[in-house]
Amino acid sequence: xxxxxxxxxxxxxxxxxxxxxxxxxxxxxxxxxxxxxxxxxxxxxxxxxxxxxxxxx
Length: 57
What we know:
- The chain is of the alpha+beta class.
- The protein has one domain: D-Maltodextrin-Binding Protein, domain 2.
- It has two helices and two strands.
- A two-stranded antiparallel sheet has the order 1-2.
- It is flat.
- The N and C termini lie far apart (25 Å).
C-alpha cells in the first residue's frame, strides 16, 4: 500500500481513477503491514471501462 497510495493520490488529483476493483485505493484501510491488493490506475474512462468488465465476471 505504501507504493500504491502516492500513485493513487497523483492519478486522482489529475482527474483519473485509482481503485482496488471495489473501492478507491485512497479509501482502503490495510490490516497488515505488507498487505497486497489489486491496483487499477489510469484515466477515468479507461478505468471505468475496466471496472465494468471486472464486475461482470
